[in-house]
Write a structure and sequence with these properties.
189 residues; alpha/beta; Glutaredoxin; 2 domains; two-stranded antiparallel ribbon; 5 helices; 38% helix
C-alpha cells in the first residue's frame, strides 16, 4: 500500500478506538447514586456504593460475647468502621496500628469509637483473631457479609470514617497507619 492509502485506514482505526472509549466512559458514568442510602437492618442488604458526604447505613451486629452493636446507638460519637478478615494479610498488618490509634485517641476523647467488622470469614476464625490480638475496640461478626455488601466493600481492609452526625467523611481502601487514623479521626466533627 502507498502512504496515501494507509492514512485513511489509520484515521479510521483511531476513530473507532476513540468512539469505543467514549462509549465505555459514558456507560460507566451513567450509574446514578441514590440520594438517600438505605438503612440496613439485619434482614436487609443493599449493594449501593457509598460516597463521602452520604449518611452511613445503620446496622446491628453482635460481638463475639453476645453484645449487640448498632451504628445508630453511637450517634454523637465519631466512628471508625474497619472491614477486615482473618485471612487478609493487609488486615493482619494494620491491626497493631488500629489498636495503637484507638488507645491513643480514647485516652483523650471518649467520644470516639472503633468497630471492627469481621466479614467474609468463619466466625470462629474472626473470634480467635480478635482474642489473640487483644483488640480493645468493638469487634462484630459479619461473616454473612451483609453489612460489607451494604457498604459496597470491594477489598479488604476498608475503613470508613463517620462523623458524629452519622455522615461518611472518608473511605480508606487498603491498610492504614496509626498516624493516618489519628489525623483523620481528630479532624472529624
Amino acid at each position: 500500500m502507498m502512504p496515501r492509502q494507509i492514512a485513511p485506514l489509520v484515521l479510521g482505526a483511531v476513530g473507532i478506538l476513540v468512539g469505543v472509549g467514549l462509549a465505555v466512559l459514558i456507560l460507566s458514568s451513567s450509574t446514578t447514586q441514590p440520594a438517600n442510602l438505605p438503612t440496613l437492618s439485619s434482614s436487609s442488604a443493599s449493594t449501593s456504593r457509598l460516597r463521602v458526604g452520604a449518611p452511613a447505613p445503620d446496622f446491628t451486629l453482635s460481638t463475639f460475647d453476645g453484645q449487640t452493636v448498632s451504628l445508630s446507638a453511637l450517634r454523637g460519637k465519631r466512628v471508625l468502621i474497619n472491614f477486615w478478615a482473618s485471612w487478609c494479610p493487609p488486615c493482619l498488618e494494620e491491626t497493631p496500628a488500629l489498636i495503637a490509634a484507638y488507645d491513643e485517641l480514647r485516652r483523650s476523647d471518649p467520644n470516639i469509637e472503633f468497630i471492627g467488622v469481621g466479614t467474609n470469614d468463619d466466625p470462629e476464625n474472626l473470634r480467635k483473631f480478635a482474642e489473640n490480638n487483644r483488640i480493645p475496640y468493638l469487634v462484630v461478626d459479619d461473616s454473612s457479609s451483609e453489612v460489607s455488601d451494604a457498604y459496597g466493600v470491594l477489598g479488604m481492609p476498608t475503613t470508613v470514617f463517620v462523623d458524629s452526625s452519622g455522615v461518611i467523611q472518608r473511605i480508606w481502601n487498603g491498610a492504614i497507619k496509626q498516624s493516618q487514623v489519628v489525623e483523620i479521626m481528630r479532624a472529624l466533627r
